[in-house]
Design goal:
By secondary structure, this protein is mainly α. The chain contains 20 helices and no strands.
């Protein structure tokens, strides 16, 4: 039990750091746009910034392959330690980076490079922490234990939003533009140090150790995954597609949407995003617990169906500017999303053998997240520009829901598995 608690804590704090750091870029997109991609047309600056935001996601499959190889060959612990360093250092550097006005195009290029390093890190973090914590969990609790990795992601985003809100509420808009935006990036080191030392103290996953000792096959984890499990990887990518689109629509893009298209202040946009993030974290635990009782498929299906059906009306309410209705819809969608995504961790781990699990889970999660999720702010902004319709992001979200429901119909139930495959 002690090892399980330590594993969960290590996964939780690591994911909190990763997503605190990673979400700041999206949260401060309007400011970063003006500081690193100045243009006479503000909309083009914002589009450029979301393109860089997307770059961090497009390299995630490379991170998935890199960390998958390390995690399946050298152990979960080594990969999880490296992911912390590879996220913390670029984030700190972002806070110290000169702007376009100070260093010209070199500043913009450096920002892209640092964002790519962050993308490599995040490409290996979630799969590693999920594999590590679920491999410690007893049968009948894998859904709940696995959901804690998602909770860490949401707590990190919550913390990033809280710090962003505190900064924008405490100083003037001019001070935020000049230097205030740097503060949240620099504060990331406060989480990074304890996260690193905690992970350095953890033991290797016992399930991994047992599988490694009995494994004589020298085939690359990536080759084995692509040769024997490619269809299952693509199936999970389809299931994760709507989850990642909704996460980045609601939790990363929405503050910018409310600020840019509904004319809310940046501080108000951040504040409106805070409570939904907390609800998302709490309902994720509920979803994990329910999936241990009712099954992974059922707990994914109903929230996904509801979100797909109400996606367009929800976007109409966000565009209306009615704060009371926005609060109700924001929090309701967050609750549904938390329950929806929770069972995925347990299902992923249960569907792949230990010897290739890190690689297979990384690819399943990052193919969908990098291509669809990370590009969601860019796609949403481009759709609005192309169609001239502020409700256009809903088309993308609803489409993702239809794809997710189709993929889910092909997934076999695994929550009653007694032991994980080696």
């Amino acid at each position: 039990m002690h090892q399980l608690k330590k594993a969960v804590t290590a996964g939780l704090i690591g994911n909190t750091l990763e997503w605190y750091d990673f979400s700041l870029f999206g949260l401060f997109a309007p400011v970063i746009a003006r500081q690193f991609f100045p243009s006479d047309i503000p909309f083009l600056s914002l589009l450029s910034t979301f393109a860089v935001f997307a770059v961090g996601f497009l390299v995630r499959p490379i991170g998935a392959i890199l960390f998958g190889e390390i995690g399946d060959r050298s152990g979960r612990r080594a990969a999880l330690l490296l992911s912390i360093v590879l996220m913390a250092v670029p984030t700190l550097c972002m806070g110290l980076l000169p702007t376009y006005g100070q260093a010209g195009i070199a500043a913009s290029i450096a920002l892209v490079f640092l964002r790519m390093l962050q993308g490599l890190s995040i490409g290996g973090e979630y799969a590693g922490s999920v594999s590590y914590v679920v491999e410690h969990a007893p049968a009948g609790r894998r859904g709940l234990v696995g959901s804690t990795a998602f909770v860490g992601c949401k707590l990190g985003a919550f913390l990033g939003t809280a710090v962003a809100a505190a900064v924008t509420c405490s100083i003037t808009s001019e001070e935020v533009e000049l230097w205030g935006w740097r503060i949240p990036f620099l504060l990331g080191i406060v989480i990074a140090l304890p996260a690193f030392f905690l992970r350095r103290s953890i033991a290797e996953s016992p399930v991994y150790v047992e599988a490694a000792e009995g494994c004589t096959d020298k085939i690359s984890p990536l080759k084995e995954t692509l040769r024997y499990h490619a269809s299952k990887v693509l199936l999970f990518a389809g299931i994760i597609f709507p989850m990642t689109v909704w996460i980045y629509t609601l939790m990363v893009y929405m503050p910018t949407y409310l600020h840019t298209f509904v004319d809310f202040s940046l501080a108000l946009s951040f504040l409106l995003n805070l409570f939904p993030l907390l609800i998302l974290a709490l309902t994720t635990l509920l979803g994990g617990w329910l999936s241990d009782k009712l099954g992974r498929r059922k707990v994914i299906f109903w929230p996904l169906l509801v979100m797909t059906l109400i996606g367009y009306p929800a976007m109409q309410i966000f565009a209306s500017g009615n704060i009371m209705m926005i609060v109700i819809v924001y929090n309701s969608m967050a609750a549904l999303l938390g329950i929806l995504q929770a069972p995925v961790a347990g299902a992923l781990v249960e569907n792949f053998p230990t010897r290739i699990r890190y690689t297979a889970v990384s690819l399943s999660y990052n193919i969908s997240t990098s291509i669809f999720g990370g590009c969601t702010p860019l796609i949403a902004t481009a759709l609005i520009a192309y169609l001239g319709n502020p409700l256009a992001p809903a088309y993308w979200a609803v489409f993702s829901g239809v794809v997710g429901l189709a993929a889910l119909s092909q997934l076999k139930e695994t929550y009653r598995m007694e032991a994980l495959a080696s």
